[in-house]
Design brief:
Length: 270
C-alpha cells in the first residue's frame, strides 16, 4: 500500500523541492576578516605608540583586501554577505584606522584642526565607499572614480612610516600630516579618474622582460620599504590629476561614468 504522498505525486500534483540551506562561504570571508584584523591591529599599535607597526598593519590589510574578491571569483563563492562584509572591513581598515592613527601620531597637537582633518578623511572614506557601491555598474571598469580608499590609506600610513623611519616625531609634522589627510580624503570624493588595473589579466602570457621588471621592482622595494612604497603611492595619488589634465587638454570626456539614463544598481563592493 502506497502512502498519501506517493498517491498525490501519481495524480499529477506538483511536488515542491526543498530549498538548499544558505550558508556563508568561509574562504573569501577569511581573507576579509584578516584584512579587518589588519586595520584593528593598526589601531591598537597606534594606541601603544608603535606607529611603524601600525603602518605595516594598514599595508597588510591592503594586500588581503585585494585578494578576497579575487579568491571569491576564482572559487565561484561570491555572495551578497561577502560584499557587505568587504565594505565594512574597508571602512575600518582604510577609513577609521588611518584617521585614528594620524590623529594619535600627530594631529592631536593641532587641537580642533587636528580632529577636523581626521574626521574629514574618515567621512570622505565612508562617502567614497558608499558611492562606489552605488556606481559600480555604471563606472568604466578601467578607472576608479576618485582615489580608492586603500591608496588613500597608504598615503597616510606611508607618510607616518617614512617619518618614523627618518626619526621625525609627530608633533614636528603636524601641519604636514594635516595636509596629507585632507588631500587623501578629498581626493577620494572627487571625480578624478585613477587607473584600476582591472583590465590586467593574470591568465595572459607576457614577455620575459616583464617578469624581470617585476623582480627588479620587488628588489627595489626591499632596499628601503618606507621610502619606495610611499613614493609609489605618491605617484599613484597624483596620477589621477595627470590623467584628468591630459583628457581635458585632448577634449576627451573626463568623467568615468558611462553614458546611461538608468539609475545605478545598488550592488556591493567587488
Amino acid at each position: 500500500m502506497q502512502d498519501g504522498s506517493d498517491s498525490a505525486a501519481q495524480d499529477g500534483d506538483v511536488v515542491v523541492a526543498r530549498k538548499p540551506r544558505k550558508g556563508i562561504y568561509i574562504l573569501p570571508n577569511l581573507f576579509t576578516l584578516a584584512a579587518l584584523f589588519g586595520g584593528f591591529y593598526a589601531i591598537v599599535m597606534a594606541v601603544d605608540g608603535r606607529f611603524d607597526l601600525a603602518a605595516v598593519g594598514v599595508f597588510c590589510a591592503m594586500v588581503l583586501d585585494s585578494l578576497d574578491g579575487r579568491v571569491a571569483r576564482m572559487t565561484n563563492t561570491q555572495s551578497a554577505f561577502g560584499e557587505q562584509m568587504d565594505s565594512l572591513s574597508d571602512m575600518v581598515s582604510f577609513g577609521a584606522a588611518p584617521a585614528l592613527i594620524s590623529y594619535v601620531w600627530s594631529l592631536h597637537g593641532l587641537g580642533r584642526w587636528g580632529w577636523f582633518a581626521a574626521f574629514v578623511y574618515c567621512s570622505c572614506a565612508a562617502l567614497r565607499l558608499a558611492r562606489f557601491n552605488v556606481n559600480t555598474s555604471v563606472v568604466d571598469k578601467r578607472y576608479f572614480q576618485g582615489l580608492p580608499s586603500p591608496a588613500a590609506a597608504a598615503l597616510i600610513a606611508g607618510f607616518i612610516w617614512l617619518a618614523n623611519d627618518l626619526g621625525y616625531k609627530g608633533v614636528d609634522l603636524a601641519w604636514a600630516t594635516f595636509a596629507v589627510a585632507l588631500y587623501a580624503g578629498l581626493t577620494m570624493v572627487t571625480n578624478v579618474p585613477f587607473y584600476s588595473f582591472k583590465d590586467v589579466s593574470m591568465k595572459r602570457s607576457v614577455p620575459f622582460a616583464v617578469i624581470v621588471a617585476i623582480a627588479l621592482a620587488i628588489a627595489l622595494v626591499n632596499l628601503d620599504p618606507p621610502k619606495v612604497i610611499f613614493g609609489l603611492f605618491v605617484m599613484y595619488g597624483l596620477s589621477g590629476y595627470v590623467v584628468y589634465g591630459v583628457r581635458k587638454w585632448r577634449g576627451v570626456q573626463t568623467s568615468v561614468i558611462s553614458t546611461s539614463t538608468d539609475e545605478p544598481d545598488e550592488r556591493g563592493l567587488h
